[in-house]
Amino acid sequence: MQAAGSLADRKAEAQRRLCTYAALAGVALLATACGTPKKELTTGSIPSASASARPVQTMTESELKAAAGSLGATYEKNPNDKANGLNYANLLRMTGKNDQSLAVMQQMAIRFPSDREVLAAYGKAQAAAGQLEQALATIGRAQTPDRPDWRLKSAEGAILDQLGRPAEARQAYRDALDIKPNEPSVLSNLGMSYLLAKDLKTAETYLRSAVAQPGADSGVRQNLALAVGLQGRFDEAERIAGAELSPTQAQDNVRYLRAMLAQDNAWKKLASQDTRSPGAKAVN
């Protein structure tokens, strides 16, 4: 019985991790498995839960709970700590607590009404809670034409992608890249925009460019692993994921992705198109 429970825990952990990557990417494929409506998904990378912690994407369930508890306790003691509040809201959003994340960001926006970073995060929290039009308005309110902020442009693109306006979204990402060339988080968002449109080759191109940039974080690399895996190149996806995850975690992620692809005919066809590439595997 204990062994069965351990296997179940591993499956749950694998699903949670892939749902994390899907949430970062906004991928509809895993939305049903994750129990998350598509409108609540966001693009982009999530920062570490704290300055000293490793990326939340590599944390176990118990570590995520511990991090949330620690950040929450710090937030209660000092709600004026901007960095902690932002990380706390991000972690809440990542773990599916969108309403609570939004509540935290509402308070942060009251405390820092003209802070662009806070307003950008507030817009993302609104988007994750399904308030897409409000989110777009929040981002627009924070932006200033004479001093455009690349973070706000990137956040605007993420929201436009969720609104089903990919052309406008990609223009926002390119505007962000004009301000901050080769920024890995923006390149990742641009890649995810193409992935949402099931243009996997273009998505991979931008994601590889993102990964090659200094400062590319774990979320960017895991997004690349997802894009590669969606094309049926599971061994390669596992190698990319395994650069930061444990071998078991990387294997579980790819195993789960393989299973989900096999159950979805549309994505299965997309994956099978890549079997002409050397080393690629068909979806079974």
From TrEMBL:
Q: Where is this region: Disordered?
A: 39-58
Q: Which InterPro entries match?
A: TMTC_O-mannosyltransferase, TPR-like_helical_dom_sf, TPR_rpt, UCP035836
Q: State the SUPFAM superfamilies in the record.
A: TPR-like
Specify residue ranges for compositional bias: Polar residues: 42-58
The record's listing under Gene3D superfamilies reads: Tetratricopeptide repeat domain
Q: Which PANTHER family match?
A: PROTEIN O-MANNOSYL-TRANSFERASE TMTC2
Indicate what this protein is called per its UniProt record. Answer: Pilus assembly protein TadD
Query: What organism is listed for this UniProt entry?
Result: Xaviernesmea oryzae
